[in-house]
């Protein structure tokens, strides 16, 4: 890499910390090689966000963070990012709560972040902006005169244009993507949705598979399916915490077949539908009673957004009914935990499970699917049941793919997974594992940055229109 890498995301993680996820580790590696900078919100609410830039060294990486006022946090983060963009991008218009004050705050915070970031930039830096909280960042930077190479990666799905069009001011939101040199998505389907949107709503065109033009600009559009850190996960699997977890599970459930689900407690993850399918399995295939046990870890998430409280009570009532209706003194069908499990124990939990249920209604990628595959013993592997609506389904076609809205169909596939012969399990696992290993998180980060380094500049000069703070447009 010629210059420094500058990563921008809503939250910043210290890549050296043990609990850091795959993304933090992969980004951290690239940031470390280039002596780069990671910029974002520090996760704190402050009375005086102005002048609150905090710089901290983490090895060769600089972590640069700012605080947010209570009002900005509530409107930008809870209101617009998680109350509008998250549901709409997951195809859930019914859960979106459009409020014009929130969209203003979304723009204001992006502008504020751009203003704080600009003085930290050096010539030759390349900037990589992450996720839906930060879509206008390049437009704001360009309006301030920034002429660096800037790329964007969307970690969540991009829905078809008819859904996007329900967002008031969708045109400005989508137009701001054209200020990036490269716009990356999890799947080719998401990239195609962007190109369709540009053609139909912005009067632009798709110039070839990887380039779209609109507003006198051209930008690169590509799919980069995110992966996991396979080596790190497998090293963790060999540690005592993980081995102990697997041994404890095997002993406790020696007479049972364990199914596992590990998700944030989010309505996109299809948890109620999963419980209904598991219930149907027990009704339709009673031989699984006294045997099949679903361990569902649901890590609490965004509890101060209303839709999350609803999904929790729905899930809890379904789990309670399942155990009440089918449970015996010595067997309960569901073990539901509304808490997170330590990362270092997760590979052990996955290794001791015969089947993983990864059945989101919609998901950008879904890393749990890949973590489950990478945690299996290749000689006696478990089976991945995967929603066709997870981005991972575009890659992991050797999983058993299901439509999570189809309760009976999903129950039939879970039955097939529980009773799959060893030879077939091995064959499917070997193919899945090859993909998970080849397209790991390091591949993802390197492929993205290499493409960004080679991407041409969006043709056309930055203009005042690039700023989502344009007063004429706002009126
Ligand atoms: C977004 C997109 C995309 C989960 N529960 C626990 C726990 N986890 C870990 C998993 C996994 C991560 O959190 C979750 O990643 P996912 O990809 O499954 O889902 P999101 O959080 O929604 O992530 C998604 C991703 O961004 C990356 O681009 O794939 O589509 O929605 O690593 O293992 N970790 C611990 N305890 C838990 O209880 N320690």
List the helices and strands and how they pair.
Layout: E1 5-11, H1 22-33, E2 37-45, E3 54-58, E4 61-68, H2 70-89, H3 100-117, E5 126-130, H4 137-143, E6 149-153, H5 161-164, H6 170-177, E7 182-185, H7 188-201, E8 205-208, E9 211-214, E10 217-223, H8 230-237, H9 240-252, E11 257-264, H10 271-284, E12 292-299, H11 306-326, E13 334-337, H12 346-351, E14 355-358, H13 367-374, E15 383-387, E16 400-402, H14 407-418, H15 422-438, H16 441-454, H17 471-474
Parallel strand pairs: 1-2, 1-5, 2-4, 5-6, 6-7, 7-10, 11-12, 11-14, 12-13, 14-15, 15-16
Antiparallel strand pairs: 3-4, 8-9, 9-10
Description of the molecule:
With 475 residues, this protein is of the alpha/beta class. It has 2 domains: 5-227 and 441-474, Rossmann fold; 231-438, Glycogen Phosphorylase B (Rossmann fold). The chain has helices spanning 22-33, 70-89, 100-117, 137-143, 161-164, 170-177, 188-201, 230-237, 240-252, 271-284, 306-326, 346-351, 367-374, 407-418, 422-438, 441-454, 471-474, and strands at 5-11, 37-45, 54-58, 61-68, 126-130, 149-153, 182-185, 205-208, 211-214, 217-223, 257-264, 292-299, 334-337, 355-358, 383-387, 400-402. The strands form 2 sheets. A 10-stranded mixed beta sheet has the order 3-4-2-1-5-6-7-10-9-8, with helices on both faces. Strands 13-12-11-14-15-16 form a 6-stranded parallel beta sheet, with helices on both faces. α1 (22-33) crosses α16 and α2 (70-89) crosses α3 (100-117). It is globular and about 65 Å long. The structure holds GDP-alpha-D-glucose. GDP-alpha-D-glucose binds at residues 21, 155-156, 226, 262, 264, 297, 299, 340-343, 346, 363-368, 371.
């Amino acid at each position: 890499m010629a210059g420094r890498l500058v990563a921008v995301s809503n939250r910043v993680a210290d890549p050296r910390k043990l609990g850091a996820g795959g993304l933090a580790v992969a980004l951290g590696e690239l940031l470390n090689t280039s002596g780069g900078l990671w910029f974002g919100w520090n996760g704190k609410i402050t009375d005086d966000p102005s002048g609150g830039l905090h710089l901290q060294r983490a090895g060769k990486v600089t972590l640069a963070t700012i605080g947010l006022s209570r009002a900005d946090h509530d409107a930008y983060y809870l209101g617009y990012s998680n109350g509008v963009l998250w549901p709409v991008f997951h195809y859930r218009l019914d859960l979106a709560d459009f409020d014009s004050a929130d969209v203003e705050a979304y723009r204001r915070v992006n502008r504020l972040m751009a203003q704080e970031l600009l003085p930290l930039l050096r010539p030759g830096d390349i900037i990589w902006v992450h996720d839906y909280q930060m879509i206008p960042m390049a437009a704001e930077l360009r309006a301030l005169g920034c002429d660096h190479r800037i790329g964007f990666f969307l970690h969540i799905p991009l829905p078809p244009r008819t859904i996007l069009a329900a967002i008031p001011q969708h045109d400005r939101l989508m137009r701001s993507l054209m200020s990036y040199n490269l716009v990356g998505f999890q799947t080719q389907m998401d990239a195609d949705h962007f190109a369709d949107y540009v053609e139909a709503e912005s009067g632009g065109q798709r110039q070839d598979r990887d380039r779209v033009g609109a507003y006198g600009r051209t930008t690169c559009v590509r799919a980069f399916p995110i992966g996991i850190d396979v080596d790190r996960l497998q090293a963790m699997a060999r540690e005592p915490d993980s081995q102990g977890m697997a041994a404890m599970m095997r002993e406790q459930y020696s007479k049972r077949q364990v199914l596992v689900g590990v998700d944030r407690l989010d309505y996109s993850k299809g948890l109620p539908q999963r419980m209904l399918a598991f219930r149907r399995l027990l009704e339709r295939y009673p031989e699984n009673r006294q045997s099949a046990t679903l361990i569902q870890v649901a890590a609490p998430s965004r509890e101060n957004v209303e839709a999350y409280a609803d999904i929790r009570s729905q899930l809890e009532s379904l789990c309670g009914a399942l155990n009440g209706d089918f449970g015996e003194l010595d067997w309960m069908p569901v073990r539901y935990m509304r808490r997170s499990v330590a990362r270092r124990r997760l590979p052990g939990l996955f290794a001791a499970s015969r089947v993983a249920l990864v059945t989101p209604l919609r998901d950008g990628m879904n890393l749990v699917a890949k973590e489950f595959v990478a945690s299996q013993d290749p000689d006696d592997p478990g089976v991945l049941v995967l929603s066709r609506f997870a981005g991972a389904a575009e890659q992991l076609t050797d999983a058993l793919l299901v439509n999570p809205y189809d309760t009976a169909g999903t129950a039939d596939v879970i039955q097939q997974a529980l009773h799959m012969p060893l030879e077939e399990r091995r064959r499917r696992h070997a193919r899945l594992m090859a993909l998970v290993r080849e397209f790991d998180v390091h591949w993802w980060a390197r492929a993205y940055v290499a493409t960004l380094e080679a991407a041409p500049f969006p043709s056309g000069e930055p203009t005042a229109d690039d700023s989502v703070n344009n007063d004429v447009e706002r009126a």
